[in-house]
Amino acid sequence: MSDPYPPCDGGELGCPSLRYKYSWPELVGKPGKLAKQIIEKDNHFVTVLILKPGDSITGDRCCNRVYFWVDDHGNVTSYYPPRIG
Fold this sequence. Notes:
The chain is of the alpha+beta class. It is built from 1 helix and 3 strands. The chain has a 3-stranded mixed sheet with strand order 1-2-3, covered by helices on one side.
């Protein structure tokens, strides 16, 4: 089974310290696919993962990864608003 997550970059690319956008609370309630497009446009250093109810995440913090959960209708939930992590 392959790892669903991109290799973790704990370095500087895409991290908040470099002035790239790192959180997107305004996308809560928006369609997940649209949110993914917006995030990738705002910060081209990150890989976006859309998670469904019941999906779990790794415990590491990666500067090149954004993940968020969508509800049964495919909209971004407020449980964990999109942000680098």
